[in-house]
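Pasting as-is:
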Amino acid sequence: MRLVVSYLCGLVFGAGLVIGGMTQPAKVVGFLDIAGHWDPSLAMVMIGAIAAYAVAYRLITRLPAPAFAESFAMPQRSDIDAKLVGGAALFGIGWGLSGFCPGPAVTSIAAGSLAAPAFVLAMVAGMLVYARVAESSAAAGNIESETAAKIVLEADA
């Protein structure tokens, strides 16, 4: 049942990305081009998504537990560090250059886009490189081995 619900949620999410125009790199780049021919239509998509999430979050977190897990998986950290800022900057640069972010890129593959597979392969390669660097940093004693193992497992999943 969990797999069926996950699949249906993925379909709804993908349909929303397509309907909202998030799978069109030219539209995304137009949205990010605030100094040129700015296209604000994606701002409306994002505002609608944030509003829906805000309401759903309030309602769902009042439940005793999620439907398919023992407890809610909530972030344990709230600090802002160099890795967070660097990762956000790298994400934004990649989004601006390619017009893709991870969800829309995967959805675009299913829609037959030719550029999306290259983006997804590059994204996965970057994740694997990061995991290996974290693993070697742990071996050198630069970070905790438990953190590196978690990074590697997440990247390999």
